[in-house]
Design a protein that fits this description.
alpha+beta, seven-stranded mixed beta sheet, 3 helices, globular
Length: 143
């Protein structure tokens, strides 16, 4: 059984879709992965949404989108500690992140993103980033 999490409202779901659209728009052309993590009683739930964008639009798995946006709606509720990561694949791989504060995505700067994704509370020490990974300032997501 996974962690216990609050059920999101319709407003949370609408805000989650808005945030999703804005983040994927800012991702630009290329291969990307979005990961949302939400901590609840008994653990953390995560969902991954891999997608590719080109001049004609987005290619992705629809069932991945449903699961991802459902967990993103829980993050947007503000009821649980939550974060969002955008990885852009390539050389270098670029990582940007947001922390949800009261349900709003607050962008992390380069150093905060590095700390957030290389320091894991369950590890004995820092996690080594994958070779070719750069951490970048996340853009502001206006909602």
């Amino acid at each position: 059984m996974g962690p216990l999490l609050q059920v999101p409202s319709d407003r949370d779901r609408n805000r989650a879709l808005d945030i999703f659209n804005r983040v994927t728009e800012k991702a630009g052309i290329g291969s990307h992965g979005l990961t949302v993590g939400v901590s609840g009683i008994g653990g953390t739930a995560t969902a991954l949404f891999p997608f590719v964008q080109d001049d004609e639009g987005m290619a992705a798995n629809g069932s991945d989108l449903y699961v991802f946006c459902d967990l993103l709606a829980i993050a947007v509720s503000g009821a649980h500690p939550s974060g969002l990561v955008l990885r852009t694949l390539g050389q270098p791989q670029t990582v940007r992140g947001w922390k949800f504060i009261d349900g709003d995505p607050m962008p992390l700067n380069r150093a905060q993103a590095f700390d957030a994704y290389t320091l894991h509370p369950d590890a004995d020490g820092p996690l080594i980033p994958l070779p070719g990974t750069e951490y970048a300032d996340a853009p502001v997501i206006h909602i």
